[in-house]
Write a structure and sequence with these properties.
2 helices, globular
């Protein structure tokens, strides 16, 4: 995923496939996460409280998990922004306003609709360019 490093700052903490602790729940290793600038590892992991944004890229085999299960889990733990990148549907879904059962708001952005600025809870902006994301092979559909 492309990161607008100027708006995040040169000391931005991002992680890919790093374990996050979720007490009383299965730990997660999201495809991509943006962490608070003061986030500190607890052993080999960060805690869910360090997370500003989680993004998952949906493979066909786990679409239900990323769309349903993770949406409920990340919302329940108060992850401020959850982004689902679905190359097969050529869309990005941005979930905000977490609740105990998911998110109040979900906005869908189709590939080709231009850069997508996403406001983070700490006031910074993460910019995702869906046109830079991978697309499935034409014959794989």
């Amino acid at each position: 995923m492309q990161i607008d490093s100027l708006s995040l700052g040169r000391h931005a903490k991002t992680a890919s496939d790093v374990y996050l602790d979720f007490p009383a729940d299965e730990n997660s290793a999201p495809d991509f996460a943006i962490l608070r600038e003061d986030a500190q590892r607890q052993g080999k992991r960060f805690t869910f409280e360090d997370v500003l944004l989680i993004a998952e890229v949906v493979p066909v085999s786990s679409a239900r998990k990323d769309y349903d299960d993770c949406t409920a889990k990340y919302g329940r733990y108060g992850i401020p922004v959850y982004v689902v990148v679905d190359p097969n549907a050529a869309e990005v879904v941005v979930h905000t306003q977490p609740t105990g059962s998911g998110y109040i708001a979900a906005h869908t952005h189709k590939y080709g609709s231009g850069k997508l600025p996403i406001e983070l809870a700490d006031g910074r902006t993460y910019t995702l360019d869906p046109d830079e994301l991978p697309r499935p092979e034409a014959d794989a559909r």
